[in-house]
């Protein structure tokens, strides 16, 4: 019969969700205002609404299907992703609006702010991809709330202390989410991970759904990278879209080639294709403001795909055995390593175009400080979150119930047979 986890969900998940949602409703009721001065012929609506649609599809459909690859975790992979995304976005609206509330008494909401808020939620989705299957939905909600809070704080510090532009500060989400999740999975480590969980496997049907999510992300990634490029600079926005597309195309081809070369039987690996075809988009997104030529984007995509595919093939198991970090969705290779590569490419491209040695040194120091601040804050928030969620009060799932939908969802037709 199905595992009896209803008391855990009833006494912890439902009160937590209702409490958070009521708090959000009260805050929105007293302190938010939809921006009404939208120009009919301006860029606010006609520019940002298509971007909002594309980013929304990525957040809810792309990541949802991508995380549904375990054979008995499809409901949880897609359903919990949806739940985390909507809660994280609502919180991000409030946190990102604190500055406007301080000056005007109201949290201003418009299409651009919602795009930024959904991008902040993506940082939480990256983190839960590392710990999914080994946590319950209460854990995921708490992780998302703390992770988004930390990321918004990091974005504010980068813009305030280091004067980092909004697109550059937002694209730190790949590094922030990856390191946050790795620290978290290290603190929540289970010895069963070394033998692989009984249900941590995929089949043809779930693998196809996961590939659909990856392709969905691949299609809409140019919108994700170009959404916050300044509206007035139409050439830069087009350049961002084209550069991202070219990097994604090159990374898809390169990932397929490296997958075949690294396979003992010389065959393609679906997991490599799911994870590594996105590497070029991640790397170019981090270095977007410095990429000027198509060949630069293609070179970044080529290198990112090689690093990502090799990481998925060899690094995941070594991270587990050497550092006790069980990365469920190989997020380190999909987001972490390509984003670090993009950071290096951004630095090199800026130095290439800089003729003044003094300015080059200053920019290098500034760029390194940006990375160090992101790393320090992500690791700190990951440790704080790990200390909170590792408590038995939240009733973590037993090892034999990890990656199992029946722990959280109703399956009347399977209750007797399984």
TrEMBL record:
Q: Which GO terms describe its cellular component?
A: plasma membrane
Keyword ATP-binding part of the UniProt annotation = no
Primary role: Functions as an ammonia transporter. May play a role in the elimination of ammonia in the gill.
Q: Name one GO molecular function term.
A: ammonium channel activity
Q: Which family does it belong to?
A: Belongs to the ammonium transporter (TC 2.A.49) family. Rh subfamily.
What name does the UniProt record give this protein? Rh blood group, D antigen isoform X1
- Keyword Phosphoprotein annotated: no
From which residue to which does any coiled coil extend? none
Q: Where in the cell is it found?
A: Membrane
Give the record's membrane topology.
Multi-pass membrane protein
- What is the protein's species of origin? Xyrichtys novacula
Q: Known SUPFAM superfamilies for this protein?
A: Ammonium transporter
Residue ranges crossing the lipid bilayer per the database entry: 12-31, 51-70, 82-102, 170-188, 208-224, 244-263, 270-291, 297-315, 365-389
What the entry lists under InterPro entries is as follows: Ammonium/urea_transptr (IPR029020), NH4_transpt_AmtB-like_dom (IPR024041), RhesusRHD (IPR002229)
Output the GO biological process annotations, alphabetical, semicolon-separated. ammonium homeostasis
């Amino acid at each position: 019969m199905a595992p009896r986890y209803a008391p855990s969900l009833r006494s912890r998940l439902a009160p937590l969700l209702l409490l958070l949602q009521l708090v959000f409703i009260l805050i929105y009721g007293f302190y938010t205002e939809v921006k009404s001065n939208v120009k009919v012929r301006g860029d606010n609506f006609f520019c940002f609404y298509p971007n909002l649609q594309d980013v929304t599809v990525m957040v809810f459909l792309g990541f949802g299907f991508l995380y549904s690859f375990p054979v008995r975790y499809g409901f949880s992979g897609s359903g919990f992703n949806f739940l985390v995304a909507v809660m994280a976005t609502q919180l991000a609206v409030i946190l990102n609006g604190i500055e406007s509330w301080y000056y005007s008494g109201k949290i201003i909401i418009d299409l651009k702010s919602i795009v930024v808020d959904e991008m902040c939620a993506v940082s939480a989705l990256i983190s839960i991809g590392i710990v999914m299957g080994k946590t319950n939905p209460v854990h995921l909600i708490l992780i998302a709330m703390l992770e988004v809070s930390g990321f918004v704080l990091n974005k504010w510090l980068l813009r305030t202390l280091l004067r980092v532009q909004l697109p550059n500060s937002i694209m730190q989400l790949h590094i922030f989410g990856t390191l946050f999740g790795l620290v978290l999975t290290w603190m929540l480590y289970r010895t069963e991970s070394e033998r692989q969980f009984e249900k941590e496997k995929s089949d043809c049907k779930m693998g196809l759904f996961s590939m659909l999510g990856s392709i969905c992300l691949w299609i809409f990634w140019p919108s994700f990278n170009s959404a916050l490029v300044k509206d007035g600079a139409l050439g830069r926005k087009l350049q961002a879209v084209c550069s991202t597309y070219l990097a994604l195309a090159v990374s898809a081809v390169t990932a397929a080639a490296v997958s075949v070369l690294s396979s003992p039987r010389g065959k393609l690996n679906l997991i490599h294709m799911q994870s590594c075809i996105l590497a070029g988009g991640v790397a170019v997104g981090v270095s977007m403001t410095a990429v000027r030529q198509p060949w630069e984007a293609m070179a970044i995509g080529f290198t990112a795909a090689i690093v990502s595919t090799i990481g998925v093939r060899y690094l995941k198991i070594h991270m587990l055995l050497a550092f006790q970090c069980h990365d469920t969705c190989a997020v380190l290779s999909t987001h972490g390593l390509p984003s670090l590569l993009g950071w290096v490419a951004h630095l090199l491209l800026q130095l290439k175009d800089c003729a003044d040695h003094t300015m080059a040194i200053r920019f290098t120091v500034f760029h390194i400080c940006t990375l160090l601040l992101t790393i320090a804050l992500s690791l700190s928030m990951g440790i704080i979150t790990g200390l909170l969620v590792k408590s038995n009060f939240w009733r973590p799932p037993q090892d034999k119930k990890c990656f199992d939908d029946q722990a959280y969802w109703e399956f009347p037709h399977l209750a007797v047979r399984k």
